[in-house]
Amino acid sequence: MLAASTGSAQTPSRPGVPPQDAWTCPLTHPIKGNFTTYSGERCIYHMRGGQYYSKTKPERCYATEDDAVKDGCRRSKR
User: Fold this and answer.
1) What is the pTM of this model?
2) Any idea what the Cα angle at residue 20 is, between residues 16 and 25, rounded to 5°?
3) Secondary structure percentages of the chain, helix, strand, coil, to 5
4) Of 32, 36, 54, 59, whose CB is crowded by the most CB atoms within 10 A?
């Protein structure tokens, strides 16, 4: 009797979590990541207190700036 292979390749988990709703990130992950197509960049992240933080609808939320960078984002210039 041959046993079927049940092993699967492990993929590294992606940093961050989905937003709570259209405008809000969880308190544990307050950095808002916004994936763009118009700017030619993959992702821009916004920190609390930034000019566009309250105007940004997050697509991904991060606990740290390092997590956002690991996911391909750069910090907002404003």
Assistant:
1) 0.80
2) 55
3) 10, 20, 70
4) 32
